[in-house]
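Progress against Task 2.4 (sequence-to-structure conversion) is shown through the following example record, which the project officer requested during the mid-term review.
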Amino acid sequence: MLVSNVQVTRDELSDLLAASHDSLRFEDCSFDGEDLTGFQLEGVQFSGCSFMETCFKRAQLQDTVWQRCKLGQADFSLADLSSARFQVCDLHLSKWVHARIASLLIEDSKLSGAIFNETRGLDLTLRDCKLVGTTLRAINFRKQTLVQLDFSEADLGGCDFQDTVFEGGSLRGASLRGAKFKGADLRSVELGSITLYDLNNSFQGACLSVDQAVQLLGSMGVLVK
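Structure tokens generated for the chain above:
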């Protein structure tokens, strides 16, 4: 069932879910500011829709598909997003506190200022995303290949990047306290300035390029000739 080019309220969405016997698809619809707490939306597809400041707390969003959607300041706290997919979406300042993110995929999207505190589940996959100022504490990226992720000024405290391969992207200005990079390949990522504390506690066993090593030493006042 396809719904397109309309503004959808909480009550109207509830009626559509009750009446539909097939997978629901929404195109170019607006859900801005709606309270969708606890809604069961498993498998629903959204394309070109707007959810500015929409609340999805405790919603069941497993296997949902979101393409070219505007979700600025959306609240996914305590929601189940297992195997959901976000592609080319604006998710700036969104909240994912205590959300279940097992096998969640987000690609080519904006997540600046988003908060991922105390999320549950493994295998979060991010590709080509802007994560400037994002809070991503204790997320497991172990053994992943991270493609063009801009973590500038992000809080990555406690994240596991062990044996991870970085393909481009940036860690400039990121908070790395407690993060683990043992065995990580960092040769193509922009590191910015890393403190001696970070180097001793987070980057032991990481792979750096010669230019990166010279840059790090230079930032610590060591002259390399």
